[in-house]
Amino acid sequence: MLEASDGPAAIRHGPQAWPKEAQVEWRPVLYVIASGAAPARELPALITALTDVWDTCVITTPEGSRFFDSSRVAELTGHPVRTSFKDPDAADVLPPAQAFAAAPATFNTINKWAAGISDTLALGLLNEATGLGLPIVTVPWPNVALARHPAFGRSISTLRGCGIRVIFDPGRLPDDDHPGQAEFPWDELRAELARMRTALADGGQAPA
């Protein structure tokens, strides 16, 4: 399975606790890939909600690391937060991934990912996971203007064509003309992760 080896080379307004009946001993490894957007500030709450059902590791883009306390997230997950490529001779510090959640995913992350660009650790891992056909869910989070850019629409279509579950509602994105409308879809993300978790427990990958 894929691991962070640098190859090839939340709540009505945030996460809630998982139901007790979903808590089991076996925890598949989930890589949460966070880009530099405001919802990344809520990652500690999401991680807390996932702890009983996923062994969660957090990898960020260079900008993503500015939005939360990496030490706090490392304490919650039991794994260091990765941002940059490691030395080729260094040991891997994260377990192999079995599923991915790219959330929030910025305009740059979505477009580079769809184009197969791996100029950061986060993108390299997402591109490898796409090639391997691992279960992936993403929540794109551009502002309204960037979401209307034609390249963005093509990128979303490309990722969906690769079997990636894309949670995207243009009506809930940040908009300078309507500053109060932005609402990150934490509930939908949690529901999709629960579906992916069930599929893995049943011995298969989550259906697209």
Structure, explained:
The protein has helices at about 45-50, 70-75, 105-115, 120-130, 145, 150-160, 185-200, and strands at about 30-35, 55-60, 100-105, 135-140, 165. The relative contact order is 0.18. The model is unreliable at about 10-25 (pLDDT under 50). Helix 1 (about 45-50) packs parallel to helix 2. The protein has one domain (about 25-85, about 95-200): 3-Layer(aba) Sandwich (Rossmann fold), CATH 3.40.50. Helix 1 links the parallel strand 1 and strand 2 (about 55-60). Strands 2-1-3-4-5 form a five-stranded parallel sheet, sandwiched between helices. With about 210 residues, it is an alpha/beta fold. The protein starts with about 30 loop residues before the first strand and ends in a 7-residue tail after the last helix.
Major sheet size, sense and barrel closure: 5 strands, parallel
Fraction in beta strands? 5-15%
Q: Provide the gyration radius in Å.
A: 16 Å
| C-alpha geometry | globular
Low-confidence stretches: 8-24
Tell me the total number of β-strands: 5
Write the CATH fold name.
Rossmann fold
Strand order of the largest sheet: 2-1-3-4-5
Estimated structural class:
alpha/beta
Name the descriptors.
208 residues, alpha/beta, Rossmann fold, 5-stranded parallel beta sheet, 5 strands, 33% helix
Short description:
With 208 residues, the chain is of the alpha/beta class. Helices cover 33% and strands 12% of the residues. The protein has 7 helices and 5 strands, in the order βαβαβααβααβα.
Topology at a glance:
Elements: E1 29-34, H1 43-50, E2 55-60, H2 70-77, E3 99-105, H3 107-115, H4 121-132, E4 136-140, H5 144-147, H6 150-161, E5 165-166, H7 186-201
Parallel strand pairs: 1-2, 1-3, 3-4, 4-5
